[in-house]
Amino acid sequence: MSWQQPYGPPTRESGSAIAALILGICGFLVCPFVCSVAAIVCAQRAFSEIDNSGGRITGRGMAQAGHILGWIGAGLCMLGLIFFLALIVFVESSSY
């Protein structure tokens, strides 16, 4: 009778997924554009790392949350920039 291990190999959380989630949150609070873009990059790295691990690395949910927060933060930053530029153009054109 052979003894078999009842569980699979131990799993661990992806560091890139954790970083993506933290950067996605920081994108709303600290440095909007830089942190949001970094969150998107870290999330892509985490997806690749998780897909290539064969089930040993987890954290896809955190990576997805960081990815979504990164895109929302970058989009809001761009909308704010467009609004700011439109405001400058409006003020300059009405002052003449």
Low-confidence blocks of residues: none
Count of discrete alpha- or pi-helical segments spanning 4 or more residues: 3
Write down the secondary-structure element order.
Answer: EHHEH
Q: What is the end-to-end distance?
A: 93 Å
From the alpha carbons, calculate the radius of gyration and give it in angstroms.
21 Å
> How many discrete structural domains?
1
Oligomer: single chain
Instruction: Say how many strands there are.
Output: 2
Can you describe what's shown?
- This protein has 96 residues and is mainly alpha-helical.
- The chain has one domain.
- Helix content is 73%, strand content 4%.
- The protein is built from three helices and two strands.
- It has a two-stranded parallel sheet.
- The chain is rod-shaped, with a radius of gyration of 21 Å.
- The mean pLDDT is 91.
How are the secondary structure elements laid out?
Blueprint: E1 12-13, H1 15-29, H2 32-51, E2 57-58, H3 60-94
Parallel strand pairs: 1-2
Task: Please describe the structure with a list of short key phrases separated by commas or semicolons.
about 5% strand; 2 strands; about 75% helix; about 100 residues; mainly alpha; 3 helices; two-stranded parallel ribbon
